[in-house]
């Protein structure tokens, strides 16, 4: 079967009683007045017989039956005679009984033979309609569509995200409690140990252990003492234990998400670890955008105890070299108004970056990333309405470049913390493994 319908099939779709005459070139004043006074909420009634009208035909509101009757009568130049007294009341039921009075009624309500097209004009109109249908069919066929396989990948990523991201943030109560200096002077953390009693990674134990059971890639990272260039007051890091637990928890969720990305498990264990260790903080920054508020430039994760402002992050050891660009990034990403589908695709593309340090099979990683990128571009074209879709894909890819700079600064500041035993002991083993200096 051909891609498009044949001319005959398109012709068959055109109603036999085609109203090609209903568009007059210059309606008379009476028609214009009637149209202006017409209330679209009032039921349309045929001015000839009282049946349901279908629109203005030959300058008057009529039904399809009276429209066709008037056209045929004018074309045949029919001469009718009333068998009664010439004043028959035309209704839906008796309109066929007296053609003379029906035609008279048509003329009385303003129907005009000048509006009737010739056979040649009707044919041209039909050809125009058929051509327009063919153009619309061609346009529709050229419009990008999400393939079934692409839709399935999106659904898998959505499920992965929903399984690893809790919008209620209920697990945050298991972290070491947040201690804010401005409101809790004199308070100290309930525990200076690495984890509080009762908080564990049991639901993702395999994810957490994967970092210690597999060869680490920290040897490939160049560790340097950057403390001279940092301006952090290390004597007041009251929020460090809480945010260390939060980051450690988030890393595990990123691991869980990554394992459900189609194709990720096809990589070697070493490449999986290399990708996760390099991208974890970037994906955490992407995930945190869901809780970021443009109103007060804070991250709200449930109750006020878990509402994080810039001052909270500085009390965890981070300075403005990271925080200023981080907030700018969160603002610009929020303003893109990404769909959840676009958000999860961006996270997956971020993880599957072939240029991460330590990745061996770059060709396989690149092929998976290219496939995800193609799905994202197709989704934007098909599902993201304008004007938001304008240049959306390049803007999203630019966000990945911005994340690289944020990642570098974040890792540098965490390494600086890890060199100081009094602060490294507040970090979790997973955070030290991914970002910091391993302290025995």
Question: Can you put this structure into words, describing what you see?
Answer:
Helices cover 50% and strands 3% of the residues. It is built from 16 helices and five strands. The protein has helices spanning 7-13, 29-37, 64-76, 99-108, 119-142, 148-164, 205-213, 240-259, 269-288, 310-314, 320-334, 340-351, 362-383, 392-418, 421-424, 429-434, and strands at residues 55-57, 60-62, 292-293, 298-300, 307-308. It has a three-stranded antiparallel β-sheet with strand order 3-4-5. A two-stranded antiparallel ribbon has the order 1-2. The N and C termini lie far apart (72 Å). The model is unreliable at 1-37 and 183-234 (pLDDT under 50).
Name the beta content range: under 5%
Main sheet: strand order: 3-4-5
User: Between the first and last Cα atoms, what is the distance in angstroms?
Assistant: 72 Å
Shape: elongated
- Output the radius of gyration: 36 Å
Count of alpha/pi helices: 16
Low-confidence stretches: 1-37, 183-234
Structural class: mainly alpha
The amount of helix comes to 40-55%
> What is the helix/strand order?
HHEEHHHHHHHEEEHHHHHHH
How many strand units? 5
Mean pLDDT: 81
Largest sheet: 3 strands, antiparallel
InterPro entries: DBD_VDR, NHR-like_dom_sf, Nucl_hrmn_rcpt_lig-bd, Nuclear_hormone_rcpt_NR1, Nuclear_hrmn_rcpt, VitD_rcpt, Znf_hrmn_rcpt, Znf_NHR/GATA
Keywords: Cytoplasm, DNA-binding, Metal-binding, Nucleus, Receptor, Transcription, Transcription regulation, Zinc, Zinc-finger
Domain NR LBD: 149-436
Region (Disordered): 174-207
